[in-house]
Amino acid sequence: MIPRIHKQGSRTLGLLIYLYGKGTHEEHIDPHLVASFDGMAPDPGRDPSVTEKDLRHLLDQPLSLLDADQRPDEHVWHCSVRAAPDDPILSDEQWGDIARRIVAATGIDPGDGAGCRWAAVRHADDHIHIIATLVREDGRHPDHHRSGKRAQAECRLIEKELGLHQVAPGDGTAAKRPTSAERHKAEREGRERPASEELRETVRRAVAGATSEEEFFDRLAAAGLLIRKRVAPSGDLLGYKVALPDNRNGQREPVYYAGSTLSPDLSLPRIRKRWSGDASMQGADTPSDQATGPAPSDPATARRRTAAAAWQAVLVMDNGEDGQVAAYVAAAGEVLDALAKTSAAHTRTELRQAAAVFERATRSRIRAEHGHDRALRQAARDLVYSGPALGRGEDGATTAMAIDMLFFLVTAAAHWHAKKEHAQQAAAAREAAEHLRTAYQTAASIPMGALYQRGRRLSQPLRHQQAARLRAAVPELAEQILAEPGRHALAATLADVESTGHDPATLLAEAAGRRELGTAGSVSDVLVWRLRRMADLPADASAMPDHTIAAATGGRAVRPSPSRDERPGKVR
């Protein structure tokens, strides 16, 4: 249940006419009163002898207790309360009780007998509007400071008592929701979503991996946005606004949104902190297993580096300082945006949804210490500048590898947020992980299928040897892994590891000794990608030379078909 305190106004009658009218899309069905300050207010919706002016006169009567110069310029308090889409339809009596609780909790009518006059109008099954005059019966002004937070807290109690959908409590760091006017305008113009949401996603993508103002604004322009910069008399850039070329007001002028309006972390000063963090860490030591070197020229290499940076971040997040972890989580959002922007069509939808949902997880009250996240931000940059990836071959396989690592990074972010009691952020990260799980299943089906076939062609003695290595490296999970369809892909990977000169037992023990194996949907899949990344093996099995299979199978080329219950790529 979401309460929303609207901007205070000065026209009681204007708001009442809207509430009792048909609405901009004739969506107001049977508008009527469900509660009022005295339980006896006239109802223009049900009593044909009563008008909105009659109700306005009653609500605004306390204004007459004050001299004209003491009356507040904006005396109209307006709060809407909306149920969740999956909540049951509440009765008028239930909505009336909710209204009384909201005005009491917010200080509008605290129950002392001299509160403000108010009325609650219902014009749809799922919500009500409460209108009040901000002058008490005794002529004093009400104490409605922080009424939004007080209304939110009361709604959390109401949800529990009525068995409604329980909204995770927030901390004031969420991006602003589109207004009803913005939503109606989007519907009227045939847009999939309001302009502010589209702009927020576009600006977020422009930030991903950018290292300077010039690059950031070039990306905004390349995305087709109109840009208006705010410049001080000294010539210093203070801020920016953006607009969609086809989103215009009644005067046919573009509707601009400031970066800080789109989201708190998209203001220019907040974006600059990311860049300054990058500069401050230029001389910092780089972890030994983190990819370094010039920017990759192909999507597959960029995805490999992304997987390496994501996994290194997971390991650091286990015991990192809060500011450092917050920076990693924010940078993870940049990586998801960049991956969604550059991935093939068959995974793009789920990756875009994962990035959009995870955006809420990137902000909290904990201040991010940028600089430590340089490797992840560089990974986002590499993804953008290496260009779009194909959905097959090494591009497709390394996409699955990167998603696999990012799944654990997002899961680690969910655990951290939950530990810090960041309810909305933890829920967002968990939802993003589910989108990544789906994207992984799509991306991994072909490369894991090829590895599965290679593993099925291995000689029986070699398969027994791989199983023994597995039992020695991960005795507590070995039987689970050997029961998974992915065991054949893992056996093929271990054979590839050995053929390139690595010690399979040592590498397997190192890969299995790291975190999160117990929570994986397919442990064998996780180990496959870790081993192939650590041994620098091609992610695409078809890229391995033919002599590898010949050596592993003793020269035989048997190709058994998988049984129906052993088809790869179905479990994550």
UniProtKB/TrEMBL annotation:
Biased composition (Basic and acidic residues): 179-201, 562-572
Stored Pfam families: Relaxase
Domain called MobA/VirD2-like nuclease: residue spans: 72-164
Chain segments carrying region Disordered: 166-201, 276-303, 551-572
Domain of life (superkingdom): Bacteria
Descriptive protein name: Relaxase/mobilization nuclease domain-containing protein
UniProt source species: Streptomyces sp. SID12501
